[in-house]
Fold this protein.
Amino acid sequence: MRSGELLSSAIRYATVMCVPSVFLAVVGLSACKTTPPAADRQGQLIAKGRDLFFNETFAGNGRTCGTCHPAENNFTIDPAFIATLPKDNPLFVAEFNPDLKENFENPALMREFGLILENLDGFDDLKNQFVMRGVPHTLGLRTSVNSPGGPRTGWSGDGAPGDGSLRSFAVGAVIQHFTKTLNRVPDVDFRLPTGEELDALEAIQLSLGRQQDLALPLRLRGTVPKRGQEIFLDNTLGKCNRCHVNAGATANFGGGSLGNANFNTGVEDLPDQPARLTGKVVPRDDGFRTPGDGTFNVPPLVEAADTGPFFHNNAIETIEGAVAFYDGEAFNKSPAGRALAAADPRGVGIELDGTQIVAVAAFLRVINVLENIRQSIMLLEASLAASSSEEKRRLLQAARRETEDSTRVLEGGGLHPDAVAHLQEARRLAEKAVRRVFFSRKHTEEAIREQKKARALLVE
Amino acid sequence: MTVGKFVVGVVGMSALLWGGPLAASAHEMTERYIPVGQSPGLSGKYTVIGKIQTTNARDQTVAIVGTTRSWSAKVTEKTKIWLDRSKLRLTNLKGTFSDLRPGATVEVKPEGHLRGVFSGPAEWIKVQISASP
């Protein structure tokens, strides 16, 4: 799911773009010969946004957007990824910058659970007033921000200052995460992004990952994932599709789309939340607005299986556990759980048994892998058109990582060993294509074929 | 499930759980550190920037004369007042009604929409401080 890398390469070949959407341009890469100015401008904007996202520190503490949303880890961070970073990585500024030692981050909770400190309820009482949240990936944002009530960004939907839009989000991120001191004075502790920079950052973010929702049901081949899909879509059983329509981030209760809505699903009421077990102070997160109404924003699920831990507080490590949450007390006693029960002829919210929980998780694993395969193929194809060897290498490596995710996600659920074998072969071929000067094209083409074989085993 | 029950469920759901169609979704907290006139997507479009002409402590209202229009802002319990000291290279502070003095340059974000309205409650007011108080 690192289409950012893919897109930036497409931009370098902007001369071959022929449709306004850069995303489509990648698909049409080889077919087009001319360059309409609109696509070119969009391509340049995305390229600029990419550079800002991964390299611009906004004269702050050294962090970039990519510090917490790295392309090499599906635009999010988790404890395993954090453990690979050197001690002087700016993610850890609170550990080595004396000005940020207190009340900026909680290094222990960051390292053990991937949690980031945010002052969503204000900056007046830094010691006591904060929330600890996981880092969401920034994939599929084109499908997961809009609602009739306005744009919804961040776990509670109110992450951006100004007009609350995705474009404005970067300003809040700089103030919260990039500052050199807790004074947070513009042009002293950081500089605010300019209007042009906000445009470019918005463009790159909108270009990442899926550009549209799936159309479920898919004609899945695996027995268990197929049943999982049925349960997911069944409004009397799994009820997932009420809030995650087509495994995306919009809700629909039968009266039309509610867009990227907010719900109180009771995640804050989970017992034994890992961060709280440490005995460290983790104030209750009251969600949307200040004072909060307890609601959180629906995240998309296609990208979920390889971007855990799950929920706003990283409370659950595995995708099976995340599905099982809906069978528990915390959910069923929440306002959302009670509303579902009230609308149910049998008066139940969501009740799933062990087999069903695993089936729904298997479905979420498979749709994640299908998205990874889609990305891998696009990256491999783009690498064939790459002009510089450096560019080609980057794309192939991105495809390789994506393929490793696919393998891990399937293996983690004991799913489709036959497809895993093809994916492992695809990974090996991509690796070979990186190393070899000769036959690189041949290996890449073979890798694409292996990806397609794997896909054919997952879905008709 | 009957249609009636379903509708009740949905209505209950949206009333209970949904942010509401007109709820602003902006995160007001980092807003505090954004200098007057620089709020992304808001400044100049959905805010009034101007000078305070008069204040009325009893009604908790402030009359502002902007470059393009005037506005009478009502300060409510929910209104946030911030002292924008960025010109002094100092951290921004929380303010109170008494910081709203005639002559001061302010930016006001009305609750809801500006369109066609000339008075109403303010969501936030930023007061520009340009010399040491």
Observations:
- Chain B touches chain A through 44 residues (CB under 8 Å).
- The CA atoms of residues 73 and 120 of chain B lie 5 Å apart.
